[in-house]
Amino acid sequence: MSLEVPSGLPLNAHVPADSFYELLRSHSLQPRWELSEGSAQSLATPEATTVLALRYGDGVVMVGDRRATEGHSIAHRRIQKVYPADDYSAVAIAGTAGLAMEMVKLFQTELEHYEKLEGARLSLEGKANHLARMVRQQLPMAFQGLVVVPIFCGFDEIANEGRLYTYDVVGGRYEEEDFAASGSGGREAKAFLRSVYSEGASADDALRNAIAAITAAAEQDTATGGPDLRREIYPTAVVVNDSGYNAVDDAHVAEISQSVLEEQS
Amino acid sequence: MTMPFYVPPEQLMKDRAEFAQKGIAKGRSIVAAEYADGVVMLAENSSRALNKIGELYDQMAFAGVGKYNEFEALRVAGIRHADLKGYSYGRADVAAKSLANAYSQTLGAIFTESVKPYEIEILIVEIGPSPDDTRLFRVRYDGTLVDEARFCAIGGQEDELSAQLENRYQAGSSLNDAIKFTAETFEAVEDKSIGPEDWEAAVLDRTNGRRMFRRLSADEITAARS
């Protein structure tokens, strides 16, 4: 991956659009991985596991566990899988961690770049579509077994409601009405959410259900890390509503995690 | 084959400078002034859509006077430069000094090489964790780079505004006071009162989190001045 920044001012960058990715490409700086066919099968790269999001009355709650696995062993205990995309949206990643984190960084820069040039944020629909394009660009990597499947949520300032999107490996974009989960423990998390989900819940209830779902997924799926009281590792939780992106502070998540663990045991 | 007339280089540069200055003198001015938590930028601009002040990066802002299309192109180029650098290295590596140098090089080259010099003047404002980290870089049409302190006026009435600000400027004032004295300076120089809708104002404020740039609404300006 090249890291050379052009020294002059890109005054005549042959980029008509506001896209940061196109700007990178015009300088041949875009992130790219060139692999010969089948060569990635032998790679052991950290995999980010379970993330989920659910809609509630005023917005969306998004939670992710903290574990990354490499085959059957734990690669990292404290990675972050839920990120702010901009002031009014959040993105959660599952799949090959290295690719996913680069995708998030590019996505964040892209949204801010657009906002600064245009003087206005992209619509939520626009952000979701752009992320779909980024996932689609990863398709050749997906054939090599390096898959990235994000979840995206945000507060739609036009429709005045929280909205939630899921993706597939070919860049398909699906809007979800209730909840979504991705990663190895996604199936268990969804099964749990299906049994507790109610429309128009309060933020507190939604947050508790989301953390309980991660905890339940960790019970069944070895790759998902539940709340770890001994090491004080708790899931990352964020709430996106009309006041924007808000990270839930660790102490509050710890409190909810403890009460969930007591209830589930 | 026709031979071009010989023009001495001194004359050429003088003509170009005069041309650029004439263009800039027609434009309205912008004032940037330090206050306790950052820098306030104020301009007389009745357009809601065509801005003279804009965000460059987390801690940096841009202000331009003169021909809109020319300084707008420079603003876009500055954002591209900053975002490229921040993405390739780290957010903390984007600094106003290198950006101001890039602007200076670019404008210098345009002044000598292109058919017509840019009729603009720009200001790059940067703030940091403490008031000592504040930088006001001003770049002229010919690429001259000047490092200002406390306050800075660019555009048609810069001399009158600077002279007035020298008396009115108060170090370490609150945002409201800073808006008050900069707005009063404009009104004193123009000798008329300017309505709240006719201001374009923005701040870089240390208390704003990562992205320190924020535009001020007409209501905020009215409230600050009352």
H/E element sequence of chain A: HEEEEEEEEHHHEEEEHHEEH
Q: What is the CATH superfamily classification of chain A?
A: Aminohydrolase, N-terminal nucleophile (Ntn) domain
Number of DSSP-assigned strands of chain B: 10
Give the distance, in angstroms, between the N- and C-terminal Cα atoms of chain A: 48 Å
Average of the residue pLDDT scores of chain A: 90
Could you give a short description of this structure?
The complex is a heterodimer of chains A (265) and B (226). With 265 residues, chain A is an alpha+beta fold.
Give a verbal description of the structure.
- The complex is a heterodimer of chains A (265) and B (226).
- Chain A has one domain (44-264): 4-Layer Sandwich (Glutamine Phosphoribosylpyrophosphate, subunit 1, domain 1), CATH 3.60.20.10.
- In chain A, 35% of the residues lie in helices and 24% in strands.
- Chain A contains 7 helices and 14 strands.
- Chain A starts with 19 loop residues before the first helix and ends with a helix.
- The model of chain A has no long low-confidence stretch (mean pLDDT 90).
- The longest helix of chain B has 21 residues, at 68-88.
- In chain B, strand 6 (135-139) and strand 7 (145-148) form a beta hairpin.
- With 226 residues, chain B is α+β, with helices and mostly antiparallel strands.
- Chain B has 6 helices and 10 strands, in the order H-E-E-E-E-H-H-E-E-E-E-H-H-E-E-H.
- Classes of the chains: A alpha+beta (265), B alpha+beta (226).
- The A-B interface holds A 3-11, 13, 20, 23-24, 27, 29, 105-106, 109, 112-113, 116-117, 119 and B 51, 54-56, 73-74, 76-81, 83-89, 102-103, 105-106, 211.
